[in-house]
User: Fold these one by one.
Assistant:
Number 1:
Amino acid sequence: MKGILLFGHGARNPEWAQPFHRIRDAILAREPAALVEPGFLELMRPGFDEAVDCLVRQGATEITVVPIFMAAGSHIRKDLPQMAANAMDRHAGLLIALAAPVGEAEPVLAAMADYAINAAPEI
Amino acid sequence: MKGILLFGHGARNPEWAQPFHRIRDAILAREPAALVEPGFLELMRPGFDEAVDCLVRQGATEITVVPIFMAAGSHIRKDLPQMAANAMDRHAGLLIALAAPVGEAEPVLAAMADYAINAAPEI
């Protein structure tokens, strides 16, 4: 069974996690049977490992990690592959695939552009 | 005249700025006369101040800062208002408005949810 891990940086302010819960809710609204959990790099729980373990407990055998990042900085290029490798070592038979950051997806950028235009009326 | 400042965190990898240029291009494709520039908090140029000065040189008298952030962490809650206040002090008559982070916009979150579902086929 497949799962989705919404990977975020994390922040000290607990409200920072809200968009991740809203993305999760939007996924579940479209795919009620989906296994989807947020997982954060730092400052916030659940951490990446906790999210992987949670998805595995729910029956996930393949996890697609979707970085909710604008682009691939060092956290995505270095930290994430290492965390994914460690998680696959920890869970025999688990496959983890890493998607490109959402900020590289054209429809996401188009939605951001629309938002920026609407945020600056009379442009 | 109004301008849009696409405010990002910045990263060491120059490619990290690409989504900001793509958002800028998407805005200009819809609004060819728009004044729009990226501006970064750290690690990357142009910095916020450089972006403000660039927009002012182009004739902007009102700048809407659109945080290309998932949510309002301390950079948005504390650093950004101070940088905006300093920029208004530096430019007599300039008005700077701060929009909510793009990650709080429903259409942006919906696009991210779609991307996540498509990134994990057979969900």
Number 2:
Amino acid sequence: MKKLVLTGAAGRLGSYLREPLTRMCDELVSTDIVADIGKLYDGESYVQADLTDLAAMEAIVKDATMVVHFGAIGDEAPWDDILRSNIIGAYNVWEAAYRQGVKRVVYASSVHAVGMHLKTDTIGLDAPHRPDTYYGLAKCFAEDLASLYWDKRGIESVCMRIFSCAQATNARSIGTWLSYDDLIHLVERSIDSAVVGFTKVWGLSNNDRAVVDNSKAGHLGFRPKDNAEQFAKDVFAKTPPLDNKDLANLCIGGPFATVELGNSGVAALGVVNDKKTT
Amino acid sequence: MKKLVLTGAAGRLGSYLREPLTRMCDELVSTDIVADIGKLYDGESYVQADLTDLAAMEAIVKDATMVVHFGAIGDEAPWDDILRSNIIGAYNVWEAAYRQGVKRVVYASSVHAVGMHLKTDTIGLDAPHRPDTYYGLAKCFAEDLASLYWDKRGIESVCMRIFSCAQATNARSIGTWLSYDDLIHLVERSIDSAVVGFTKVWGLSNNDRAVVDNSKAGHLGFRPKDNAEQFAKDVFAKTPPLDNKDLANLCIGGPFATVELGNSGVAALGVVNDKKTT
Amino acid sequence: MKKLVLTGAAGRLGSYLREPLTRMCDELVSTDIVADIGKLYDGESYVQADLTDLAAMEAIVKDATMVVHFGAIGDEAPWDDILRSNIIGAYNVWEAAYRQGVKRVVYASSVHAVGMHLKTDTIGLDAPHRPDTYYGLAKCFAEDLASLYWDKRGIESVCMRIFSCAQATNARSIGTWLSYDDLIHLVERSIDSAVVGFTKVWGLSNNDRAVVDNSKAGHLGFRPKDNAEQFAKDVFAKTPPLDNKDLANLCIGGPFATVELGNSGVAALGVVNDKKTT
Amino acid sequence: MKKLVLTGAAGRLGSYLREPLTRMCDELVSTDIVADIGKLYDGESYVQADLTDLAAMEAIVKDATMVVHFGAIGDEAPWDDILRSNIIGAYNVWEAAYRQGVKRVVYASSVHAVGMHLKTDTIGLDAPHRPDTYYGLAKCFAEDLASLYWDKRGIESVCMRIFSCAQATNARSIGTWLSYDDLIHLVERSIDSAVVGFTKVWGLSNNDRAVVDNSKAGHLGFRPKDNAEQFAKDVFAKTPPLDNKDLANLCIGGPFATVELGNSGVAALGVVNDKKTT
Amino acid sequence: MKKLVLTGAAGRLGSYLREPLTRMCDELVSTDIVADIGKLYDGESYVQADLTDLAAMEAIVKDATMVVHFGAIGDEAPWDDILRSNIIGAYNVWEAAYRQGVKRVVYASSVHAVGMHLKTDTIGLDAPHRPDTYYGLAKCFAEDLASLYWDKRGIESVCMRIFSCAQATNARSIGTWLSYDDLIHLVERSIDSAVVGFTKVWGLSNNDRAVVDNSKAGHLGFRPKDNAEQFAKDVFAKTPPLDNKDLANLCIGGPFATVELGNSGVAALGVVNDKKTT
Amino acid sequence: MKKLVLTGAAGRLGSYLREPLTRMCDELVSTDIVADIGKLYDGESYVQADLTDLAAMEAIVKDATMVVHFGAIGDEAPWDDILRSNIIGAYNVWEAAYRQGVKRVVYASSVHAVGMHLKTDTIGLDAPHRPDTYYGLAKCFAEDLASLYWDKRGIESVCMRIFSCAQATNARSIGTWLSYDDLIHLVERSIDSAVVGFTKVWGLSNNDRAVVDNSKAGHLGFRPKDNAEQFAKDVFAKTPPLDNKDLANLCIGGPFATVELGNSGVAALGVVNDKKTT
């Protein structure tokens, strides 16, 4: 691949992806809203841009083969912020990709698109959307947008529904952890798969207590290696009994299932899914 | 019911609903973006407002029990227009409803939220979103929004996926027609059902050749009476053989399945689903 | 058919069935725990018996072709009562049938075997058991017993999951009503069908707002004629707004979904499903 | 439609279709293996031909828009006969249609393609093939052939799984009857539907006791009017009790479920599905 | 966990669990109907009690956090015995748990709740009940009871459907074996999972030829390590050809699928699932 | 096992099986249409025969316990060839097996029976037939034949849907590879399983990017060990970007999805599934 674009490159997860992505292309163009992302890797360049600026996005994705789209607010936020960064931003990425002949968008979707489903249902990829927040609602929007651009315009997408990509420090994450290595593996498979059409895939590690079923994404070849069970004993020892009437404990969205719409879920989560990037 | 609000009251379908709705409440507040909707019915008042103005929407729905939400661009349109009227507009309606304690939103969703599904699949209400246009994408968004407001805030919604509510003058409409009487019946049931939670329902008449299966919405009691078969012979006589490789003939979204994104589908459809209202 | 047995003949629903059943056989043996059921119909005889007495049941079903089993406590009740009348009683009926070579048991099962399912899900006959009371739990037991006796001993059963067979006087019953005529029709089809194996069927009328889907019981030919919609306007006019967070309004079991286990649901229901018979 | 071809025109069911089909086209070409089918209807011509002769079939379907394919052995028969008439014959019809640019094949498939399924399962159109005879096996073959010609060559097909199209004189037929009028209606809808792709549909009347579920063929608009229930009382009165361990009574294929492979099922059925035509 | 109760502690499987369970709590109270279970482990005490004595059960579970319920007749038995130990006994355990504020019941359910399903169907956890014996029927009852107590009273349950927890010495067990280590692992996960609601899980090892699919119990994190394939060659060498028309070989319940109701299946099984404990 | 028969023994895959099969029986009778297959293994004898000769097949399978049926044209071919070798040949094998009391047929079915399904759907074994060629159509036929002989005559079958059993040298094969070792393992399990009834199973290795889901064949115990991922980097490096509108890249049948019916797919595949044997 000649050119690859990474949005949200200054974000927590984006930062982890920069170096691995340089090894998958001749030229990685990283972009984010901040002025500077520090020292660049070999083959990487940085362009400051706002996702809400379609013209800027077009310029950035010109001649690229794929876009790895991680740029967005990475937490629950007020509607206007989600609208601007996560909804309009998503539109701009797919539309820019279309206008510039980009082949594929690899997208950081989220469990929160379906966060109100019960943990005890072990849902598959065919479960209906059931967002838990504005943040999750925007993920639903982007997935449907990706479906539309595939059906109508032939732009491929992989919607990676990322779970808890952070230190596994609470009881929920023993089931929902995605290690950094497995995240990188997932992104690599989303890029190197020959044909993906419109693909959804759960982004979580090979945890003993995985709360979802990835069997409908077999073709993508995502085979995570890590397993949060290694942290279980320590985490459970520090965890007080959980209230089993609390939706935050019953739903796969975790604390987002009960957080007030528009309010940050960070404190409740005890972990940041991704810091704000755009 | 004391007070009911109708958005999009100046629109083609909204206009049909005004009189029947006055009979279901003490006070019908009709609203649209136009200055005037002509002679009012008994019990009806009119308020000019823009759906994109949240404060205005809040003022209108104050003390209402339900909102019948038909206000939106009723056709494929450029993204910026869909974003403003159909996405932000939808958010404003549900958010205003929440802030003012409104119990339920009865929403004019559309077949175009799932328009890329094949006609020969006779899908049920559990089929995944598969929009055919920006117009359909916005319907997907509003349905997920409705799901979110029910799960998180207890606002009920009925998402009526309206098909071809217009004269049945082409071959597709023999399967997809929704008569005006059946539309009114559907809206009435969406209002008088005691508890609806988050309900989706196909909005089409009792056509012999109905292309979808409503059996998962039994509780709503929608029992359409009309049947487009009465028009079949005449319509088919005037219809040249259809190209069975053309997605417009294969997909339930009809011409929207092939219309260029952002361009009006009206000419292709040969029928207006609804004229622009907001 | 030469001989048919009706249990629970003194009960509310059993009483309605006596006369119609005499027309389907040469000899109807009605039985219940009471001393006397009044004037008998042509071809009917009465035997007082306790369902918990296996020997008595054996004597009654001797030479019968089928048993129509309505005998049981027809409401939520303390566990010990349900155990005796509805669980042990059911065992005795199937076991007596087996010992005496009876071909089929037509059983008054109930919606309460699955009463905790959501009304808005319009479940089919393949939904899992989800009882709402001890009463419903005993229905689950009897259905599984019927399955066992078919698989292991070739005794056929029809499990009629009866909904609200009483005057339709509350909002729930507009969706769940089973008219007396439709009950009789259902029992007739359960008897005259040539081969039924182990069949489950929803027992409710052809209500516009029917909350379940009978399409998996097509072979039985139950085609109800009545429709509670005729009562809807009057009933709704008298019904205050229902609390849509109350499981009694959300679940198909209605008030049984919230009644305390072991306590009668009668007051809450405002209608008796069946009075106590055994 | 200018030209329509009917194979098996001398057969029992084919004979019924000749006159109605003349009303759906300018020119009906009837064909069968016999020398003569008697007096012709207006617009009908007859060509004697053997289905196993591809060149002859090509000549017959030249310039036709559709083929209504009823030509085949209409009963269980020795393998070599089924192979020749029903398998090779089917291949020749679709291949001839392809070579001559015919748009659609309307095919007399049969319940016997799935005859080993249980009557009490009320299967839908998505149930897997489960043939009960060589006859049924050939129907499976032709359905898969139809699927192949649609996917690879764009030839449309409607596979009508005909049940008991004959006098309803036995207990099974109360559930499986297809009246002649409903057969004609089904063929008409299979012809006049604008786009059908590869469509399967159950061919049975609106019987109370219909043993299958047609809800996945909604787009075809088959709405049968007749109901075998009118014969039920008389038929049941003459029917001795059926053995409920006998697969002939348990399976939707009826006597074909137990007939020895290669032997005629006619005697067992008490009714001829169709007499031999080719 | 402060206090844990084990019923059936003198039984074959219960005996294996005593020592591991002491390591999961401060205080293990073992109970069974026998006078004495021999030498106790550190942290273990023993209380003789009859499961049919609700007051005794209440006293035992007082202040316990969870109950591991293995007490029951562990084989097919006459109805009256099953009724007393396995049905009434189960009721007493859940009711005592409820009255004393116990959080969770970990229950030894069994494959025999669904034993009549075909081995070649590889059913999932959503397959309907299909018991093969009175023993299996009582397991169905207890599972429905567990569902009821979760829905109505918030008592959690894990229903472990144990297969062949014994030496793998016959052909069936190569597919159905549950090693003792994997049993312990399963019980541990059923205890240490933070929230389980009403969970069902298949209890069998990681056998190559596992006859069921556990993918709907992902959240529980049961990852068995053992594999009966190590015994396959030896066992098959000693196994005569099996009759493939025999339900004992076709159904996942094995010999229980053909054992006479009420008669012990032990001889047929060649292995005791559990000896009688209550 | 005393005697085992292998058809297609001179074919590419058959050749690989000869030696392993000799270790599973006392006497292996290999057969094919060629005069000679070279040096025989211990316990192996060779009989030249044509699959289209039923009498010859009967003679060969006499006294055999099972037939491993690999004899057929192993590629797309003209209809008449497929008819003779793959359809009539299959009939002869099952019919000969029936006449001679053979217990089981282990059959080399193929992905091409369902080759038109989308790669991104990760279908299970319950997906409907959807052949991509005459070759695949004949596989459909044989699977339905196997179903028929099990249901009606008690002959067991395992239909192994073999994918790409050859060097993994193109992008598709990274997902569809079946190593020779895994093929042998699959055949062994198909033989040594005690009871298989009518079983379908996907025949592909444990590839990261496996395009189908084998979870419904758990009872067979097929646990492939190899993984084509080892070849991915090299293969992808040599692969130009694939056209994602080309059905050959979208469908699991690969190039067969676009090959002209009746024309060899070999050139397109770049690999021979099996050379012609009969």
